[in-house]
Amino acid sequence: MEKIQILIQMLILFSAARLFGRLLTKIGIPSVAGELLAGAIVGPQMLHIIEPSTTLETLAEIGVIVLLFNAGLETHIDELLKVGKPAVLTAVLGVIFPFVGGYFVGQLFGYPTAENLFIGTTFVATSVGITIRVLQEFGYAKRTSAKIILAAAILDDILGLLVLAIVKNVALGKTNVLELVLLAIQAVSFVLFLSTIGPRITRKRSTFFSALSCDFLFELSLILMLGLAILAEEIGLAAIVGSFLAGLVLSEIREFTTIEDRYRTIGWFFTPFFFGLLGTHLDFSALKNLNTLVEVLIFTVIAVVGKLIGGYLGSIKKGKQTALEVGVGMIPRGEVGIVVAGLAFSYKVVASDVYLSLIATVLLSTVISPFLIKWIYSLKKG
Amino acid sequence: MEKIQILIQMLILFSAARLFGRLLTKIGIPSVAGELLAGAIVGPQMLHIIEPSTTLETLAEIGVIVLLFNAGLETHIDELLKVGKPAVLTAVLGVIFPFVGGYFVGQLFGYPTAENLFIGTTFVATSVGITIRVLQEFGYAKRTSAKIILAAAILDDILGLLVLAIVKNVALGKTNVLELVLLAIQAVSFVLFLSTIGPRITRKRSTFFSALSCDFLFELSLILMLGLAILAEEIGLAAIVGSFLAGLVLSEIREFTTIEDRYRTIGWFFTPFFFGLLGTHLDFSALKNLNTLVEVLIFTVIAVVGKLIGGYLGSIKKGKQTALEVGVGMIPRGEVGIVVAGLAFSYKVVASDVYLSLIATVLLSTVISPFLIKWIYSLKKG
Fold first, then answer.
1. What ipTM, to 2 d.p.?
2. How many CB pairs under 8 A join A and B?
3. What's the pTM?
4. Topology of the domain covering A68-266+284-377
5. Å from B23 to nearest chain A CA?
6. Cβ–Cβ of B15/A223 closer than 8 Å?
7. Contact at 8 Å (CB) between B117 and B96?
C-alpha cells in the first residue's frame, strides 16, 4: 500500500476509535468498548474501509506496548512482591481452570484429544490491556486487585507460553523436553532478572539517571521499552511483558515522574490503534449459525467462568471484593488467544469450524469484559 | 515483513539516529546531520541492517508532518503576512534561478531539452524540514528569516507543483491547459483558505475551543493535522504544507499552548525516523566515477547557488544578514527532488546515469545544508 493510503487508514481508524470511545463514555460505557466497536464497523467485516496492514499492526503493537509500559511506571516492585502469593495462585488457577474446562468441553463435543488440548490452550492467555485501560479510565488503577492482576498477568504469560509449547509438542507427536526446559529457564530468568535486579540497579543509580537531561532520559527509556518488548517477544513471551518490566524498572528513578507525561501522550496517540485494530477482527456473521452460536456461548462461559473462579480462589485471602475484582480483571482475552487458535489451525490440529468458534469465543470474552470489569469495580467505592 | 522485524528495525533506526545526532551535537554539528549519517550507515548502502519499508516510511512521514505542524504552532499568520513581499519574491526567484540554471547546464552537457527541463525541475523543490530542525535546535526559530523561509517554502511548493505539471506536459508532449489551471486553482485556494479564513475562524471561536478538555482538543488537533496533511498530498502539494497550515490555524487558540508539549513529544518520537530514513538513501559509491563526480559537483553548485541567490535577492530589503539566512535556509532539498527525478526516470525522459547524478545532487545539498545554515545563522548573535 502507498504511504498516503496508510495515512488515510490511520486517520480513519484513529478518528473512528476515539469518536466511538467518547460517545460510549457519555453513556457510561468504557471507552475501550467503543474503540473495539469502531474497529468492527470500519473493518473488513462491515464497512471494509480499513484493511489491516503491517503498518497498522505495528502502530497497534506500539500502542499496547506503551499501555503496559505506563502500567509498569505506575507500579512499584515492592507492591508487586506484597501480592506475590495471591498473584501466583491467581495465575496458576487461572491457567488450570480454563485449560481443563476447555479440554473437557471439547471431549464432550466429541472432538479428538489433540484438538481439545488446543481449545484449552486458547482459553489460557489473559490479555491484560483491556483491564488496564478500563482501570485507568475509571481511576481504579491503584487498588490492590490491580497489582495482583498485573503480577498474575506476567506469570500467566509464562505459564501460557509453557502450556502452548507442551501442547504443541504433544499434539504434533514430538516431545522435546530439553527445549521445554530451556524455554522455561529463559522466560523465568528474564522476568526474575528484570523484576528483582533491574529495579535495584535503577534505584541505586537513581542519582546518575536523574543527572541526565529529560530529553536524553526520554530517548534512553524509549529504547529500553522497545528493546525489552522485542526481547520478550523473541524469548516467546508477549512484548507487553517486556515493556511492563521496563516501566517497572524505570519507575524506581525518582526524576522519571517528570517525563511520565510524555508517555501518556505517546500512549494517547498509539493505544486507539490497538483496540481499533482488535475490533476489526470482530466477525458477528459467524454467530448466525445456531450450532456455532451454542458452541461459542458454551466456550465463552467456560473461558470466562474458568478465569473468574481461578482469580477469585487465588485472591480470596485478600477479601471477597478484591477476589471478585481480580477474577473479572483476568477475563479479557485478546490477540494471544487468536494467535494460539491460528497456530492450531495452521497445524491442521483444529478444524476450520472449531477455529472460527474459538476466535468468536476470544472476541466475545474481549467484548463483554469491559462491562464486567466496570460493574464489579464500581461495587466498592473509592 | 513481520511485526517483530519492523519493531527491531524501528529500534535500530531510532537508536542509531539519536546516538549519532547526540554525538555530533557534542562537537557542534547539527544533530540532523548525525541522523542522516546514522541512516546512511545502517541503511542498504553500507551495513544494510535497515530495509526501507512502508511502515518506516509512514513513521518518517508522520515525523516530518509533526515537525512542520510544530513550526506552524510557533508561527502566527500576522507574522507571515508581514513578510509577504520578501517571501513571494524569495519563492519566485528561488524557483526561477535553480530551474533556469539546471536547464542550461543540461544544455551545456548536451542533453536533450526534455531531460533538461526535468533537471531544472529537480532543483526547484525546497525541503524545509532540515532548516526548521536546525533553527529549532539552535534557537533561531524566532528570527524574521525563519518566517520568510516558512512562507516562501509553502509558495515554493505550489510553484514547484505547477512547474512539475507543466514540465511533465511538455516533456511527454501533451499539453492540457485546463488541467494545469485546475491544479493551480486547487493549490492556491487550499493555501489561501487555510492561511486567511482558517486562523480567523479559530480566533473567533477561541473561547469555544478553550472550553474543551485538553485530551479532546489534542485528539481533534491530531485529526486536523493528519487530515490536512492528507488533503494537501491529494491535491498534489506536499503533506507538510497541510500540516504546517494546520499548526498555523491552531496557534490562534490561546489554550493550545497547554498541549504544545504533547506535540513536542510526538515530534521527538517520530522525527528521527524521517531524517534517519532520508539518510538510508545516501549512496556515496556513485561518487567513485570521476565524470559523475564532476557532474554532481556542477549540479550541486547550480542547485545551491541558485537557491542562495534567489533567497538573497528576494529578501535583501530585510537586510543583508536576513537575506543570507533566507538564502541558506532555502538550500535543503529532500524527498521531493528525489521523487521528481524518479518520475522523470520512470517516464524514460532522463537517462539512468543522469538520474543517479540528480539523486546524488539532491542528497549532497541535503548533507551540506545543516552546516551552511548553522554557520550563516551564527554570524549574527541572539
1. 0.90
2. 97
3. 0.90
4. Na+/H+ antiporter like fold (1.20.1530)
5. 12
6. yes
7. no
